[in-house]
Amino acid sequence: MALEPGGDAGRRAGALRRAHERFTTAGRVEADVRPVVAESWRRCARARVAPEGRASVELRDDELAVYRDGHPLSRVMPVIRELTGAYAVDGEHLVAVCDAQARLLWVEGHRGTRELAGRMNFVEGARWAEAVAGTNAPGTALTVDRPVQVFAAEHFQRPVQDWTCAAAPVHDPHSGRLLGAVDITGGNRLAHPHSLAFVGAVARAAESQLALLSPRPPGGTARLTALGRDEALLVLEGRRVRLSRRHSEIVVVLAHRPEGLSGDELLLELYEDERITPVTLRAELSRLRAVLGPRLLESRPYRLGASVDADFDTVGRRLASGAVAAALGEYTGPLLPASRAPGVARLRERLRDQLRTAVIARGDPGLLADWAYSPWGEDDLAVWRALAAALPEHRRPAAQARARALDREYGRADGAAALGREYGNGDATLGREYGNGGEGEGGARAPFGNPW
């Protein structure tokens, strides 16, 4: 609990402000700061969240409307409104529902409170993820995946410290996937055990309603997670199966082609080496069937016997609807990054290029920064150039410096490749050995030193 029953809210708020000040100036957490808040503050510090900052709006107007209408939680908004509407209006509170990236999709309730909350960007379309908006109930509840109450100066960002909020995560009732969170935001009166219990009950009611609206199909619904990982995770009927690399490739290809593939077609999608025989593929499929069960892997043609909700398909759907921010939020990395299976590689590059192109075209500095500072975007010269152009002038130097460094690096690589082509019969090896990679650039020293 943020405040014990009968506790003095004013005194507690003052103690928290002093504790917050000591943490932001000296990095020291006081003993009376709750562990869930202390851990959150440390995560905020590591993420370099600015204590004086505020949430940014990522989804606007048409993009917000399209994304919101297609989100699973839109189906349970009538239930959430029925349970919370009078509570919010009578208590001068707000009820907010966000997605799994903590983007606020609905903010409803007392009109005056809504106007005040708008000053700190607690509005529809704003992203309140802990890593960008600091400690707050919806963002922290999603981070720790459990109900959380945040009171006064427990909020990491100072513009939010006059508020109190409680939030609980909402999951898909069949796959267990995190869909978002329900939040109640208002004044100090929310610093009460009842508010946390109430928002938890609303979240459970939303999950129950989702189960009624979307009963489990006869063949089951599987959740496939393959972005940013070499071994895919498949969740089906409560079972979590971590697939081997080859099995991950098979399931990804079949999930992308639900109509099924013949043995010859699947062979071409999976193997670079044309000498691999159908016998090898059948043996691999037999092992996969033993892992998944005969009902999930069918043959003639080879296909999955359940509806598969794949994370890479979700990104594709978001892009197709024009929801670039939502697509980037779902993109946790390249599809099976270590895979060399032709079908996987084509799908991986197509998805990456479509998303990257959309991010550059949008020109939004927040989206560009998300890509540029990711492991897969840190060497992307075009994105760094676009970010440097999109940022306000006072924030450009770091992006410009990174773009210049990449430009020099790629220039040397191009020069080395050209040298190799000229003197090495089309092979860049000679150029790499003598034209690049000196000690000062982090490469191996050429055998006879760098003659240039």
Automatic annotation (TrEMBL):
MF (Gene Ontology): DNA binding
Pfam families per UniProt: GAF
Signal sequence, start to end: none
Classification via InterPro entries: GAF, GAF-like_dom_sf, OmpR/PhoB-type_DNA-bd
Coiled-coil residue spans: none
Segments of this protein annotated with the region Disordered: 422-452
GO annotation terms (biological process): phosphorelay signal transduction system; regulation of DNA-templated transcription
Gene3D superfamilies: 3.30.450.40
Residue stretches making up the OmpR/PhoB-type domain: 238-304
Protein's name according to its UniProt entry: Transcriptional regulator
